[in-house]
Design a protein that fits this description.
single chain; about 600 residues; alpha+beta; nine-stranded mixed sheet; eight-stranded mixed sheet; 17 helices; 30 strands; about 30% helix; about 20% strand; binds oxalic acid; binds manganese (II) ion
C-alpha cells in the first residue's frame, strides 16, 4: 500500500483540472496525488522511495538529508537526437532543431503514454520558475510517475500550494507530462510544443530529460515566450563581483559544456584579492531570464532554486562552494557509493577512491584497483541553491540584478585571446553567434575539432536560431544602457599543448578588467576582432603568470582568425534567409578588418 494516498486537488482551476483528467485518462494511473510542497509530504515520499529502493539514504551524520539514486545505464544524459521542437511550421524550428509535425507527434506520443502509468501514482507538481507571485515568475505543472522527479523538482524549483494560489484561474502555465514507461531508448522522446506551452517526456528517468522546469521549460519553451513577450531566456550563469568599496557589479556568462561554468559561477577570489576585500556572489549557475528594466538596463534573474551540477571533477580545490552545497539535503545520481561509511565518491573528488564501494551501475567496485569508473562522467548532484556559501543576497530578489556585462566563452587552444570586448552590441551578438569550442581528448572523436555552439544555446533554443539572433539584436535596441559584451578564453595553450592561464579563481583578474571597462576606467587596444587589454591593465600579482605569457595570451593571429571567419561563414549558410543582415555585415566587417 502506498504511504501517500490520493489527496485533494490544490486548485479549482477548471483548465488545470480538465488537463490533468485528460492526461490521467490516457496514462491510467492507479491514483493521482497533488504535491503541496509540505515537508511532511516530501518526507513521506523519501521514506517510500527508500523502502522501494529508488533512493538510498546516506550517512546522516556526514551527509544529513542526502540520498543516492541510480538511473538505468542506458539513460544517463540528455538525448539531443530524441529532443524535438514541434511547432506547426518546420522552418520555425530552424536548421538546428529536430522537428516533426505536431499532429503526427501527438499521435505517436499518445500510443507511448497509453496506459503507461497503470498501477502507478501520478504526482501533480505545481512549480514556479522565479519567486512565486512575482511579476517575472512563470508557472508550470509537471505530471510524473517518479518520486525521484518529485524530490528533484522540490530542490530545483519552488513547488506546491503557493504556486497554485498564485496561478489562480489562469490558463497561463506550462503543461508537462513525464512517464517513465519502459525506459526504452528507441521510444525515448523529449518533445516541446511551444504553441501549446506543452512538454512531453517519455521513456527516460534521467534529470535533464525529466526535470521539465530546467532545459525544457526555462530554456526551450521560455525562449519562445521571450521572443513573443520581449525578453530573453539564456543558458547563462549570473555572478556578482563586489569590490573593496562594496560596489557590486553583475554579469551573465554563457559557455559550452566542459568550460567551467559552475566553477566561474562560484569563483573563489585569489588570496591577494580576498585580502583586499573582494567577494564573488553566485546568483545562478545555469539559466538567466533577462528583461528590460525601467532604468534602461537589462536585468537578469535565475528562475531556478537549486543546482543540478556535474559531480566528477568537483573537489575542495576546483569548486569548494559547489562541494559545500552538496553536504546536506542533496540527491546524488549515478555516483559511486562508499559502503565503508555510507557516503558518496566520484572521480576527481580526492585521490582516495573507496575500496568497498558500489559503482554507478550498481556493481561491487574496488576503486583502489578497478580501471572502470566509479561514477558516471555525467553523474550529478541536485543541491539547494541556499546551501551555497557564496549565494547572492539578491538570489531571492524577484526582479533579479542589473547586468553591466555579458560574457561569452569557449575552449580555444590558439584562436581567441584571454579576453576581448566587442565593438558594440551588434558586434557582441555576432561574437555570441560565432561561439565555439574545440573538442578535447576527454570526449570520443577527433581532438581540436571546432564545434559551433551559439550563445551555448544550440541544444536549448526553442525556435529558429536565425530569428533568435534577430531577437538578440532587437533587445539591444530596447535599452539605452545595454551591457557591454565580452569574450573570454581560459584555455590558451603553448607549443607543447600546456595551458598557459591558471584559470579557476585567477579568472577574477580578467573579470576585474571587464569591470573596469564597464566603468570606463581603462583604455583598450583596438584590433580587428575588438578591444583587447593593455597587458599592464591585468593585475598579475600572485598569479604565477609573467608579463610575456600574458602578452602571448593576448595575441591575435590574423591567419587563424581568417580561418575561423570562414568557419562562421560556412555555419551561417545553414540559416538561409533567417540569418539577420546585421550579422552578415558583422561577418563581412570582420573579414575586411582581417585583410
Ligand atoms: C546542464 C547542461 O546539465 O547544460 O546544465 O547540459
Ligand atoms: Mn546547462
Amino acid at each position: 500500500m502506498a504511504l501517500v494516498g490520493m489527496n485533494m486537488a490544490l486548485t479549482g482551476n477548471r483548465d488545470v483540472l480538465d488537463w490533468i483528467d485528460m492526461m490521467a485518462a490516457m496514462t491510467r494511473p492507479a491514483q493521482v496525488v497533488w504535491i503541496d510542497g509540505s515537508e511532511s509530504q516530501l518526507k513521506a515520499l523519501r521514506t517510500q522511495a527508500v523502502a522501494s529502493g529508488e533512493l538510498e539514504k546516506l550517512n546522516e551524520e556526514k551527509l544529513p538529508g542526502c540520498y543516492l539514486h541510480r538511473t538505468a545505464p542506458n539513460d544517463v544524459a540528455r538525448v539531443e537526437d530524441r529532443t524535438f521542437i514541434c511547432c506547426p511550421r518546420e522552418e520555425d524550428a530552424g536548421p538546428t532543431n529536430n522537428w516533426m509535425d505536431p499532429d503526427v507527434m501527438y499521435a505517436k506520443l499518445r500510443k507511448l503514454y497509453d496506459g503507461a502509468m497503470q498501477g502507478l501514482t501520478m504526482y501533480v507538481i505545481p512549480y514556479s520558475m522565479g519567486v512565486v507571485g512575482s511579476p517575472f515568475a512563470k508557472y508550470g505543472i509537471e505530471l510524473t510517475d517518479s518520486i525521484y522527479v518529485v524530490l528533484n523538482m522540490s530542490i530545483m524549483t519552488r513547488i506546491g500550494q503557493d504556486v497554485m494560489d498564485a496561478l489562480g484561474n489562469s490558463d497561463d502555465y506550462v503543461r508537462g507530462l513525464h512517464a517513465t514507461a519502459k525506459l526504452d531508448p528507441e521510444n525515448r522522446y523529449i518533445v516541446h510544443f511551444p504553441q501549446d506551452d506543452t512538454i512531453m517526456s517519455v521513456n527516460s528517468a534521467y534529470g535533464g530529460n525529466v526535470l521539465l522546469g530546467k532545459k525544457c521549460f526555462a530554456l526551450r519553451i521560455a525562449s519562445c515566450q521571450g521572443r513573443d513577450e520581449g525578453w530573453m531566456a539564456e543558458h547563462m550563469l549570473i555572478l556578482g563581483i563586489e569590490n573593496p568599496k562594496g560596489e557590486v557589479f553583475y554579469l551573465a556568462a554563457a559557455f559550452p559544456s566542459a568550460c567551467g561554468k559552475t566553477n566561474l559561477a562560484m569563483l573563489i577570489p585569489p588570496e591577494h584579492y580576498k585580502k583586499a576585500g573582494w567577494k564573488v556572489w553566485c546568483v545562478g549557475d545555469d539559466i538567466a531570464w533577462i528583461r528590460v528594466g525601467q532604468d534602461g538596463r537589462l536585468w537578469a534573474m535565475n528562475p531556478e532554486y537549486g543546482f543540478f551540477g556535474v559531480a566528477p571533477g568537483t573537489n575542495v580545490k576546483s569548486n569548494p562552494n559547489a562541494l559545500e552545497s552538496t553536504r546536506k539535503n542533496t540527491i546524488f545520481t549515478n555516483v559511486a557509493h562508499n559502503l565503508d561509511d555510507n557516503t558518496v565518491w566520484w572521480e576527481g573528488l580526492d585521490k582516495n577512491p573507496p575500496k568497498h564501494a558500489v559503482d554507478w551501475k550498481g556493481n561491487p567496485w574496488d576503486g583502489t584497483v578497478s580501471t572502470e569508473k566509479g561514477a558516471h562522467p555525467n553523474s550529478r548532484f541536485t543541491a539547494p541553491a541556499k546551501n551555497c556559501p557564496c549565494i547572492s543576497p539578491e538570489f531571492e530578489n524577484p526582479t533579479g540584478v542589473p547586468l553591466s556585462a555579458i560574457v561569452f566563452g569557449g575552449r580555444r587552444a590558439k584562436t581567441a585571446p584571454l579576453v576581448y570586448q566587442s565593438r558594440d552590441w551588434a558586434h557582441g551578438v555576432f561574437v555570441g553567434s560565432a561561439m565555439a569550442s574545440e573538442t578535447t581528448a576527454a570526449a570520443a572523436g577527433a581532438v581540436g575539432v571546432v564545434r559551433r555552439d551559439p550563445m551555448a544555446m544550440l541544444p536549448f533554443c526553442g525556435y529558429n536560431m536565425g530569428r533568435y539572433w534577430q531577437h538578440w539584436l532587437d533587445m539591444g535596441e530596447k535599452v539605452s544602457k545595454p551591457p557591454l559584451i565580452f569574450n573570454v578564453n581560459w584555455f590558451r595553450t603553448d607549443a607543447d599543448g600546456k595551458f598557459i592561464w591558471p584559470g579557476f579563481g585567477e579568472n577574477l583578474r580578467v573579470l576585474e578588467w571587464i569591470m573596469k571597462r564597464c566603468e570606463h576606467a581603462v583604455d583598450a587596444v583596438e584590433t580587428p576582432i575588438g578591444y583587447l587589454p593593455h597587458p599592464e591593465d591585468i593585475v598579475l600579482e600572485g598569479s604565477g603568470v609573467d608579463t610575456d605569457t600574458l602578452k602571448e595570451l593576448l595575441t591575435v593571429d590574423p591567419a587563424l582568425w581568417r580561418e575561423d571567419a570562414a568557419g562562421v561563414r560556412a555555419f551561417y549558410q545553414k540559416f538561409g534567409d533567417t540569418l539577420p543582415d546585421t550579422l552578415k555585415q558583422e561577418l563581412a566587417g570582420l573579414e575586411d578588418r582581417l585583410q
